[in-house]
Amino acid sequence: MLLAHPQPAALAPVMYWRAVFPGRPDQAHAVRAFVATLLPARSRLDEVLLAVGELVANALRHTRSGQGGSFTVAAYHAAGRTEISVTDQGGPAGPAVADADELAECGRGLRTVALLADSWGWHGNDQGRTVTAVFAAEPSPTAILPCPDSGSHATAGGR
């Protein structure tokens, strides 16, 4: 008797890239170009690019990376899920979502990331931190919920 064996499901390719950039403001454009080149057909690419730009701006503004140092950008993509991480050289305070005055010119970076990404989080210490934003193929229904007032080490569900 012959039995039919089901064919294994095709595995989605896993892609991972990493690059180190000098800690200068002009590198934000280079990072966005790097990510856009790697993920040209990615749904939600505009959201991913805006989030990575905010993460780079935070690394440059709030850590030693922006004081003559460097930072690393990693992009991971598999099965419709994209993770973008920025690793800096550390600073005095950890990343946190802040309430910016409506006329303030800064202070909305992580709030923007929290609203765009399906989840985000960070790990590290004053010697170096990695902040990661995660994007599913389609936005999570909870992504439209308001952000809590403070950041944390692990966030999910539209934060």
Tell me what the structure shows.
This protein is of the alpha+beta class and 159 residues long. 24% of the residues lie in helices and 25% in strands. It is built from three helices and five strands. Strands 1-2-3-5-4 form a five-stranded antiparallel beta sheet, with helices on one face. Helix 1 packs antiparallel against helix 2 and helix 2 runs antiparallel to helix 3. The longest helix has 18 residues. The termini are far apart.
Write the SSE topology.
Layout: E1 14-22, H1 27-38, H2 45-62, E2 70-78, E3 81-87, H3 109-116, E4 119-125, E5 128-135
List keywords for this structure.
159 residues, 5 strands, globular, disordered C terminus, alpha+beta, 25% strand, five-stranded antiparallel β-sheet, 3 helices, 24% helix, single chain
Outline of this structure?
The protein has helices at 27-38, 45-62, 109-116, and strands at 14-22, 70-78, 81-87, 119-125, 128-135. It has 159 residues and is α+β, with helices and mostly antiparallel strands. It is globular, with a radius of gyration of 18 Å.
Total beta strand runs = 5
Into which percentage range does the β-strand content fall?
A: 25-35%
What is the average per-residue confidence, as pLDDT, rounded to a whole number? 82
Structural class: alpha+beta
**Poorly predicted runs of 5 or more residues:** 143-159
Shape: globular
Number of helices: 3
